[in-house]
C-alpha cells in the first residue's frame, strides 16, 4: 500500500500550466521550439508517438518533442537519455549518476514517462533483463528466464545529477529509508529553509518524500525559467 500511495502522490505533484490546461482540453505535445500542438494521441512508444491533429495522422520522434501529455491515460512523457546510458559519479556519496557524454553524442533519446516535472524530474520506465539463450538439461539451447523491472530515477536539472530512487521487480526491493533521506537532502540542499525543514522530520515516508519534491519544484518554478533541454 505504501508503494501505491507513493506513486499516486507523485502523480498528484505534477502540476504545471500545461498540465492544468490539459485536464480541460485534450492530448498535447510540446515541440523543441516550445510550440504546443493539441490532438488525440493514439500511441506512445519509446521511439515515436502518433496522434491525430485536425483529423490528420501525425508521427513524431524524440528529437522533435520536449513533452507529451496523454489525457486518457493521465500520463506525461519527456524526451530523455535516462534509459540510454548513465554512469556513476566517481566518489559520490550518496551514490549519484549522470548521463554519459558519449551517449548524448552518439545515441538517440527516448520518450520516458515522468512522474514529477520541474528542477527535479522523476522518471519511470520498465526494462527487461535476462532472456538470453541457455543450455537445457538435454544439452539443447533454449530461451533463458526473462524478468521485467520498473526503474525510478530523479534527475536534478540544474546540476545534471541523477539518483536511483527505486527498482521494483522480481527479487528487487524498494529504496531504503536511509538512502531516501540522503538523496532528497542532497537534491534540495540549495533551498536552505526546505532543507532545514527536512532535517527536523522524524520519518520520511513515501508521501512526505513526494511532497518535498513538489514543494522544491514549486519554489524553483517561481524563481527560474527553464530552457528547453534534453536530459
Q: How would you describe this structure to a colleague?
A:
It is built from six helices and 14 strands. The longest helix is centred in the C-terminal third of the chain and has 18 residues. By secondary structure, the protein is α+β, with helices and mostly antiparallel strands. The protein is globular and about 55 Å long. The N terminus is likely disordered. The strands form three sheets. The chain has a ten-stranded antiparallel beta sheet. The chain has a two-stranded antiparallel ribbon with strand order 7-8. Strands 11-12 form a two-stranded antiparallel sheet. It has one domain.
Query: How are helices and strands ordered from N to C?
Result: HHEEEEEEEEHEEEEEEHHH
- Rounded to an integer, what's the Rg over CA atoms? 19 Å
Distance between the termini: 31 Å
- Estimate the strand proportion: 35-45%
Question: What is the domain total for the residues?
Answer: 1
Structural class: alpha+beta
Unreliable stretches (pLDDT < 50, length at least 5) are 2-12, 169-173
Mean of residue pLDDT values: 80
Helix content: 25-40%
What's the overall geometry?
globular
Q: How would a textbook summarize the main sheet?
A: 10 strands, antiparallel
Cross-sheet strand order for the largest sheet = 4-3-2-1-5-6-9-10-13-14
Please count the helical segments: 6
Number of separate strands = 14
Amino acid at each position: 500500500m505504501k508503494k501505491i500511495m507513493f506513486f499516486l502522490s507523485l502523480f498528484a505533484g505534477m502540476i504545471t500550466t500545461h498540465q492544468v490546461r490539459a485536464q480541460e482540453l485534450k492530448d498535447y505535445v510540446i515541440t523543441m521550439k516550445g510550440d504546443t500542438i493539441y490532438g488525440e494521441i493514439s500511441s506512445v512508444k519509446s521511439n515515436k508517438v502518433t496522434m491525430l491533429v485536425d483529423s490528420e495522422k501525425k508521427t513524431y520522434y524524440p528529437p522533435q518533442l520536449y513533452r507529451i501529455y496523454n489525457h486518457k491515460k493521465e500520463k506525461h512523457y519527456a524526451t530523455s537519455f535516462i534509459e540510454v546510458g548513465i554512469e556513476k559519479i566517481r566518489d559520490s556519496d550518496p551514490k549519484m549518476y549522470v548521463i554519459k557524454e558519449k551517449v548524448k553524442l552518439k545515441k538517440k533519446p527516448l520518450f520516458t514517462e515522468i512522474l514529477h516535472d520541474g528542477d527535479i524530474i522523476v522518471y519511470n520506465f520498465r526494462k527487461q533483463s535476462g532472456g538470453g539463450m541457455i543450455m537445457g538439461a538435454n544439452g539443447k539451447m533454449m530461451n533463458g528466464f526473462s524478468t521485467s523491472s520498473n526503474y525510478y530515477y530523479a534527475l536534478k536539472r540544474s546540476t545534471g545529477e541523477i539518483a536511483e530512487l527505486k527498482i521494483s521487480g522480481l527479487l528487487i526491493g524498494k529504496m531504503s529509508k536511509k538512502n531516501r533521506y540522503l538523496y532528497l537532502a542532497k537534491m534540495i540542499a540549495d533551498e536552505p529553509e526546505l532543507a532545514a525543514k527536512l532535517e527536523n522530520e522524524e520519518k520520511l515516508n513515501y508521501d512526505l518524500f513526494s511532497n518535498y519534491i513538489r514543494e522544491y519544484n514549486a519554489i524553483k518554478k517561481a524563481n527560474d525559467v527553464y530552457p528547453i533541454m534534453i536530459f
